[in-house]
Specification:
By secondary structure, the protein is mostly beta strands. The chain contains no helices and eleven strands.
């Protein structure tokens, strides 16, 4: 466990990935600064984002991976016309988050050990944290190192692996 986060601790691959969505809404958000470690011991500073019950209008996740054949884009899409994507207890270790956001009952600067907006997502005592009762973000774009969730419901799932394929953005 990473400082009480719901996500199980694992070494990240050393490859970040893109995540995009037309709209993300959630019943809660908790966040604090964290460091992901890769298998070579390298560190990646991230904002650990705990998202309670999330609904996304559509999602795209892509990563460029080096192979003996050349660069390959691993891409997953879901949602859109197939219906919303849902995730419970979603934890994203992200480098950035871009979009038009609305936060309800925001608490910025709260001690990370006292976060309670998302069950089981707390940080180390004395560290900077923030949380909100509900969130809505349109035009989501993020670079992340890992994402985990208790339950995913991916309507219209499509997975592809392509040489020189197109990434999400």
């Amino acid at each position: 466990m990473a400082d009480g986060a719901l996500a199980a601790s694992f070494a990240v691959s050393g490859t970040d990935f893109q995540v995009s969505s037309g709209r993300l809404t959630s019943s809660g958000l908790a966040s604090y600064v964290h460091t992901d470690r890769d298998t070579d011991g390298g560190g990646h500073p991230v904002a650990l984002l705990g998202i309670g019950k999330a609904e996304l209008s559509d999602i795209c996740q892509s990563a460029e991976v080096k192979t003996p054949l050349g660069p390959v884009v691993f891409k997953l899409t879901a949602g859109g016309k197939a219906g919303p994507v849902r995730a419970d207890s979603l934890v994203i270790d992200g480098e950035d988050l871009v979009g038009d956001a609305r936060f309800g009952t925001a608490q910025i600067g709260r001690d990370a050990s006292s976060l309670d907006a998302v069950p089981d997502v707390t940080g180390p005592k004395g560290k900077f944290g923030l949380q909100a009762g509900d969130i809505s973000v349109a035009g989501v774009r993020s670079h992340a190192w890992s994402a985990t969730g208790g339950n995913f419901h991916l309507n219209g799932l499509r997975l592809s692996v392509r040489l020189d394929g197109a990434k999400c953005f």
